[in-house]
Amino acid sequence: MSDSGPLTAICPGSYDPVTNGHLDIITRAAGIFERVVVGVVRDPQHKKAMFSVEERVEFLRDALAGYDNVEVEVFSELVVEFARRWGAKTMVKGLRAISDFEWEFQMNHLNRQLAPEIETFYVMSSPLFSFVSSSGVKEIASFGGNVEELVPPAVARRLRELFPDGRGGTPLSDQE
Questions:
Q1: Residue 17 to residue 103: CA distance in whole angstroms
Q2: Per-residue model confidence as pLDDT tens digits over 64-90
């Protein structure tokens, strides 16, 4: 470690909502890095958030309360600028499937162009969570399905409040 502070990584995402798969990646990063800053995108550009940024942050803080070296912060700048602001030389991202790789491959090249000093570490999803996505969780909940094993308890409670009877409708793709 250098004298510039703790070895810090960021875990950026929209976390709309946080899933147990996200928590798996974040807590594994917390076991490696001295400080992990979970960066919550204020206004995701590629999809409309179901939950307010305040709710998304609260879900994360609640789920990660037992981790003293994890902080949750909102950002609305380029992810590399967020990393620089926290003195992080590393971004940690989870990979579930080939489709994640394709997107992350593009993002990695763009980020390296902007900030070659910041490395991205990719952590393979645990098999238990390799199929879990925020959009999938929202879809299951909207049809009245049980998501308790997929998300932290506070998220499951909130989804039950939002969709007490399930509502049906057209499924959303990850790109929407």
A1: 20
A2: 999 999 999 999 999 999 999 999 999
Is 89 among the residues known to form the active site? Answer: no
pTM of this structure: 0.89
pLDDT given at position 1: 43
Contacts of residue 167, Cβ cutoff 8 Å, sequence gap at least 6: 142, 143, 144
Q: Catalytic residue among 47, 85, 89, 112, which?
A: 47
96 tagged catalytic: yes
Instruction: Report, as an integer, the average pLDDT of 91-114.
Output: 92
Q: Is-catalytic flag, 126?
A: no
Please say if 138 is a catalytic residue. no
Q: Which of 14, 125, 133, 134 is flagged as catalytic?
A: 134
Q: Which of 93, 96, 138, 158 is catalytic?
A: 96
12 and 75 Cβ atoms separated by less than 8 Å = yes
